[in-house]
Design goal:
three-stranded antiparallel sheet; alpha+beta
Amino acid sequence: KDETNTLISQVSTAFTQTAEGWQMDFNKIVSIVNANQAATDAEFQEWTKYIRFVDGNIILGQVQNPVILTIKNDRISFAQSGQEVAYLSNAELVITDARITHSLIIGDFGWVPRANGSVDFKKVL
């Protein structure tokens, strides 16, 4: 409130009479709003390099980056170089190729590495 009161006390006002009536311009406020708009536009341009809204989808990833995440109404899609490589939809994760660095558990069973480097398939739960 104090900042607003200070700003109001510093505002220069111009009155202009037109055929339709009087127009009042607050010159200082207009210049501050214009300066803030420029800063906001610059910040928005920076954000849109990484987050874009296209046709109802949210696209995450730096523009021109080969790896992109797209959030759609019915799926989350992972693309690399323009090709969808994985997606999550209808409680399913579909992956073109997968590399699992330790173990894989499906239900009560899993492929678990041994100390000697081989893999056991066994009940784990």
